[in-house]
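FORM 12-B: Structure-to-Sequence Request
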């Protein structure tokens, strides 16, 4: 990958079309954010959401790009699809039929994707009912539904399910016909869309002398430092040397080369912070409906800037890092693939010893990746909360934005290099035919 390949996008029509298509699909998604569910008072809901920033609803609102706060037809966003994907991945190891489909290649992958779509619709219906009930019951003391009848429930569930299905289709279209991972880019666009409003609010705070310029400068430096750390760790790998055995092919000796097995430091991605955040925000969300008692004390115990919240948050992130890595990376399967291709790790016997060695390395680097994720998600939250900055563009949101941006740039550069190579070979072919 080279910077030259990335900046040559304008000279590559096929790549330019992919980028324009991707931007168009994201624009359709952002326009749909402002199409509201019938029968909901958006003004009252917006005022209610000012009190729900630290709850599960505020968490969903971030991932839906503000659609939940707008009572949009896309209020569920892509979360049902993500949940269905995670559930299907978990079932891979428990259901023999799914495990067999996973090994069938492209045909099996299409069947699994179809099951994920069905699961998305089921979850959208269930969550659509939950949102309908949430809106009808009142939000933070605000009555946001004028006619809480059965018709409202039916229309809201149908609208939200259709909206989620459409968003899922948009993401798949971007992945197939555009550039980058469609689902990730939709989440990316939703988080980035909240940045301008936060900047304008911060400027207003500075002009009103609520925040000092030096404080803002310090926050900006922290954000740039966090971005640098994310870029470093998201590209970091533990490369295990691999040697290929020599073998005879007729009278020639082939093989004997060397390569490496790349293991990412953070192989779990952003899944652990999402799981941990959802788990911890649930008591705070329930506490909004039941004041006092045990739930009230639990809500106070799990406030964002409390040491108890952040301690449990770190423990959960570490747990989910190991849990998700164990599901997605199978050392036994990796060792079998190496043995099947005539490869081995120098100094390690093929088979079980290789699997044990890979498992040992994965355990060590996963711990480092878990500590990195914990620091990224906890430290900016604490610092921003202490300085009372009106937007929290840090932690999980910043991690998602930087990770998706890196992955998209890598794909753009890969497409650019491929097209330049094809164009170069095509020119050679034409010259050869011309001289023939």
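FORM 12-B RESPONSE
SEQUENCE OUT:
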């Amino acid at each position: 990958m080279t910077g030259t390949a990335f900046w040559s996008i304008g000279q590559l029509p096929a790549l330019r079309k992919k980028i324009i298509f991707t931007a168009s699909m994201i624009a359709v998604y952002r326009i749909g954010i402002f199409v509201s569910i019938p029968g909901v008072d958006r003004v009252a809901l917006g005022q209610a959401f000012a009190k729900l920033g630290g709850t599960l609803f505020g968490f969903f609102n971030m991932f839906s790009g503000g659609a939940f706060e707008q009572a949009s037809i896309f209020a569920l966003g892509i979360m049902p699809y993500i949940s269905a994907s995670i559930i299907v991945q978990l079932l891979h190891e428990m259901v023999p039929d799914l495990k067999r489909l996973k090994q069938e290649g492209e045909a099996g992958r299409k069947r699994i994707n179809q099951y994920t779509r069905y699961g998305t619709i089921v979850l959208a219906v269930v969550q659509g009912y939950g949102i309908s009930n949430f809106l009808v019951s009142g939000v933070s003391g605000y009555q946001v539904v004028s006619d809480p009848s059965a018709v409202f429930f039916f229309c809201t569930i149908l609208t939200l399910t259709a909206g989620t299905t459409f968003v899922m289709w948009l993401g798949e279209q971007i992945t197939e016909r555009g550039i980058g991972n469609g689902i990730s880019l939709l989440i990316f666009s939703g988080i980035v869309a909240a940045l301008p409003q936060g900047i304008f609010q911060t400027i207003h705070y500075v002009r009103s002398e609520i925040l000092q310029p030096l404080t803002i400068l310090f926050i900006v430096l922290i954000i740039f430092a966090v971005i640098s750390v994310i870029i470093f760790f998201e590209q970091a790998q533990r490369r295990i040397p691999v040697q290929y055995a020599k073998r005879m092919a007729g009278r020639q000796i082939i093989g004997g080369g060397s390569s490496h097995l790349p293991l990412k430091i953070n192989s779990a991605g952003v899944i652990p912070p999402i799981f941990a955040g959802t788990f911890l925000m649930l008591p705070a969300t329930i506490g909004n409906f039941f004041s006092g008692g045990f739930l009230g004390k639990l809500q106070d115990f799990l406030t964002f800037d409390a040491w108890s919240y952040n301690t449990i948050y770190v423990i959960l992130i570490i747990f989910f890092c190991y849990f998700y890595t164990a599901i997605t990376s199978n050392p036994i399967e990796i060792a079998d693939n190496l043995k099947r291709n005539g490869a081995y790790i120098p100094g390690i016997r093929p088979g079980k010893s290789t699997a044990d060695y890979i498992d040992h390395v994965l355990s060590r680097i996963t711990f480092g990746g878990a500590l990195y994720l914990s620091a990224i998600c906890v430290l900016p939250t604490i610092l921003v909360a202490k300085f009372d900055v009106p937007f929290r563009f840090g932690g999980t949101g910043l991690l998602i934005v930087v990770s998706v941006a890196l992955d998209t740039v890598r794909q753009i550069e890969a497409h650019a290099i491929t097209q330049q190579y094809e164009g170069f070979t095509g020119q050679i072919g034409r010259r050869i035919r011309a001289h023939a």
